[in-house]
């Protein structure tokens, strides 16, 4: 597994305000949206391109365009929905599938209650949107589903990650056994999880802060 912590001053600045308990929902949404776009820049670095020749108003020029089938963006319900606009802004041609997972707050085990994905993802890059990589239980189920359907690679964009979650994904999908590259792009790796499975210091419940408590 490849992990990238995008430690850019703009990202660090926005993340600090995002974490702040005094940041209200409208600002939280806007900051999450902006952070995803900045992380998406790094998360799409590996996408294949092919050469093209175009005409500028002045001369013929060689350039590139994205190659291969469009990437599949997979926001994980509910909080991943708050990351979708920030992602499609950068990749407007991408398809969007959905996975809904809920974790049992006692056992912390994640189970899928909705999967809206094409049966066949062969040759397609998948980009998973899930703001908090905590225990890694949710991301494990999502990655396994995408690999089983033939994804060429899986890149998870997470606003924050915990060492426990990263270790779980690395152990579950060892490079020597998994035939597709697995990547995690995040704005920061925090210290640890607390006894309720929340990231410390984290930012609280990302879904509640984006959409309000339900
Ligand atoms: N999900 C969240 O929303 N926050 C955490 O800290 C962990 C999981």
Describe this structure in words.
The protein has six helices and 13 strands. Helix content is 29%, strand content 31%. It is of the alpha/beta class and 214 residues long. Strands 1, 4, 5, 6, 7, 8, 9, 10 and 11 form a nine-stranded mixed beta sheet that branches. It has a two-stranded antiparallel ribbon with strand order 2-3. Uracil binds at residues 132, 134, 197-199, 202, 205-207.
Any descriptors?
single chain; globular; 214 residues; alpha/beta; 29% helix; two-stranded antiparallel sheet; 6 helices; nine-stranded mixed sheet; Rossmann fold; binds uracil
Q: Could you write a compact summary of the structure shown?
A:
This protein has 214 residues and is an alpha/beta fold. It is built from six helices and 13 strands.
């Amino acid at each position: 597994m490849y992990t990238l912590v995008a430690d850019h001053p703009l990202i660090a600045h926005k993340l600090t305000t995002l974490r702040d308990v005094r940041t209200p929902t409208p600002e939280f949404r806007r900051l999450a949206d902006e952070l995803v776009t900045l992380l998406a820049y790094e998360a799409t670095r590996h996408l294949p391109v092919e050469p093209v020749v175009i005409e500028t108003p002045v001369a013929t020029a060689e350039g590139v365009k994205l190659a291969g089938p469009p990437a599949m963006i997979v926001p994980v319900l509910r909080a991943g929905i708050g990351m979708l606009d920030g992602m499609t802004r950068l990749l407007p041609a991408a398809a969007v599938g959905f996975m809904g997972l809920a974790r049992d707050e006692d056992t912390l085990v994640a189970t899928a209650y909705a999967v809206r994905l094409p049966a066949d993802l062969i040759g397609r890059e998948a980009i998973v949107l899930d703001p908090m990589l905590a225990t890694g239980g949710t991301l494990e189920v999502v990655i396994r589903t995408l690999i089983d359907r033939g994804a060429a690679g899986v890149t998870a964009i997470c606003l924050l990650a915990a060492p426990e979650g990263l270790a779980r994904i690395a152990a579950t999908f060892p490079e020597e056994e998994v035939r597709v590259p697995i990547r995690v792009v995040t704005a920061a790796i925090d210290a640890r999880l607390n006894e309720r499975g929340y990231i410390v210091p984290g930012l609280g419940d990302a879904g509640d802060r984006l959409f309000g408590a339900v």
